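Hey, I was hoping to borrow your eyes for a little while. I'm sending you its amino acid sequence along with the backbone structure tokens. Take your time with it, there's no hurry, and the full record follows here.
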Amino acid sequence: QSTNRTLLQWLKLWDKVVFNRERKVRQKPKEDKNKQDGRFSKKPQQFVVNDDLDEHSRPQQKLALLCGPPGLGKTTLAHMIATHAG
């Protein structure tokens, strides 16, 4: 699930270049005390999107590689991304 969200977040970085639309920035929810203490923290994120843009408003990371053993959902994710991309 987190991989799908990360890839969709990366895809949305291209909206300014491809569709000439400004990127919608969501406000992060306030952290509660338990999360600040780290006692009940979730599993660490495997992938982090570098949302830095170059001088042409394009993402620094320009390529997404879907790889792994059979049965992980690579084809499903590729179909989902293609649907969102138009």
Helices lie at 2-12, 15-19, 33-37, 74-85. The two ends are 21 Å apart (CA to CA). The chain has a mean pLDDT of 77.
